[in-house]
Amino acid sequence: MNILISGGAGFIGSSLALRLVELGHRVTVLDNLLSQVHGREAAQHSYLYQRIQKKVSFVYGDVTKREDWEKCLAGQQVVVHLAAETGTGQSMYKIAHYTSVNMLGTAQLLDILTNKRDHSVTKVLIASSRAVYGEGKYKTEAGEIIYPNSRKKEDLDCGRFEIAGEVPNQKLKVVATDELSKLHPTSVYGLTKLYQEQLLTTVCPTIGITPVVMRFQNVYGPGQSLQNPYTGILSIFSSLIRQGRPINVFEDGLESRDFVYIDDVVEATIRGILHNDENGGVFNVGVGVPTTVLEVAKTLMQHYGKEVKLNISGNYRLGDIRHNFADISHIQSVLGYKPKVMFSEGIGRFAAWVKEQNVMVSDYDGSLAEMADRGLLKQ
């Protein structure tokens, strides 16, 4: 097939592009080589761009611009829309920018497909996020399912980081979030991803295009940007450890995420592309197992053979959630997806790749100062 990947020079996009080419598909990539991900002079020095450079048709462009979409849509059968701004914390003060890239970019694509009926696109697959679930799904001692609202600033200020029930002394247990769970994002980033989903699932059925939504958990692995200071704790922690710098662990370090290896994300996405159901679907992509931030930091130090100070600071970012991990039973039953790389193996593969790269100096401290200046980071 002819497949267009927006953001196809990014971490997930480049890995997906290479695999699709291996499978015999013809891939076009639309990407603006964002310096925050690729660094300056990306065309000469970006690992991600160089790995796809001679294997795909590359179009340099911006998804918010209609003319750039039109440059590469002709003859395409599937569009995989990955291009997006992805930093949860950064989204809370770059509101217009995140809204423009994520929401307008998607709207431009769908506007073209709606109004130019001579296209050949039959399916659009979009990368969504666990962020659409907000604080996720919890169960009371009595077995009642609840979906908590955002944590209160006064609780976070006092070091009460766990989700509290509505009833005094009520104990809650976090459980896996399924696709039918309540959608109530706690960040601007999460809101933009939910809007992307709603645009896709509203418009596509009216114009005969199959919509597929992939809600990615925390994706990691070789190829992840080592210089983006706003997203990807494995990369951020790795850079700090290799420089011998202390790690500022937010909250108490026991907040947890579902880390899913890049190869499994690519496999899930390809299954979504090839799945022959005109109704499409919405799918969680994860491993279904939570891992704490503290465990991530300690495991990385073991792999790099280097100890640095772990400063469990009690700092927090507004917009962050406490826990979330995916119920993946739906994607298993419908697409036959099963994650093959558990975190204990995947983090070793990631660390081995990092050791082969130059030590990256990201502006992590600057990113924290930026959020603190805006009152979004409690230090």
Strand percentage lies at: 15-25%
Q: Averaged pLDDT, please?
A: 93
CATH architecture group name = 3-Layer(aba) Sandwich
How far is the first residue's CA from the last residue's CA?
51 Å
Sketch the major β-sheet: 7 strands, parallel
Strand and helix layout:
Blueprint: E1 2-6, H1 11-22, E2 26-31, H2 35-38, H3 42-45, H4 47-52, E3 57-60, H5 66-72, E4 78-81, H6 88-91, H7 95-115, E5 123-129, E6 137-140, E7 145-146, H8 153-157, E8 172-175, H9 188-203, E9 210-216, E10 218-220, H10 233-242, E11 247-249, E12 256-257, E13 259-261, H11 262-274, E14 281-285, E15 291-292, H12 293-304, E16 310-312, E17 316-317, H13 329-335, H14 343-355, H15 364-373, E18 377-378
Parallel strand pairs: 1-2, 1-4, 2-3, 4-5, 5-9, 9-14, 10-13, 11-16
Antiparallel strand pairs: 6-7, 6-8, 12-15, 17-18
InterPro entries: Epimerase_deHydtase, NAD(P)-bd_dom_sf
Domain NAD-dependent epimerase/dehydratase: 3-141, 176-286
Organism: Parapedobacter indicus
Question: Explain this structure to me?
Answer:
- This protein has 379 residues and is α/β, with parallel strands linked by helices.
- It has a single domain (84-378), classed as 3-Layer(aba) Sandwich (Rossmann fold).
- The protein is 38% helix and 18% strand.
- It is built from 15 helices and 18 strands.
- The chain has helices at residues 11-22, 35-38, 42-45, 47-52, 66-72, 88-91, 95-115, 153-157, 188-203, 233-242, 262-274, 293-304, 329-335, 343-355, 364-373; strands spanning 2-6, 26-31, 57-60, 78-81, 123-129, 137-140, 145-146, 172-175, 210-216, 218-220, 247-249, 256-257, 259-261, 281-285, 291-292, 310-312, 316-317, 377-378.
- The strands form six sheets. The protein has a seven-stranded parallel β-sheet, sandwiched between helices. Strands 7-6-8 form a three-stranded antiparallel β-sheet, with no helix packed on it. It has a two-stranded parallel ribbon with strand order 10-13.
- Strand 1, helix 1 and strand 2 form a beta-alpha-beta unit.
- The longest helix has 21 residues, at 95-115.
- The radius of gyration is 20 Å and the shape is globular.
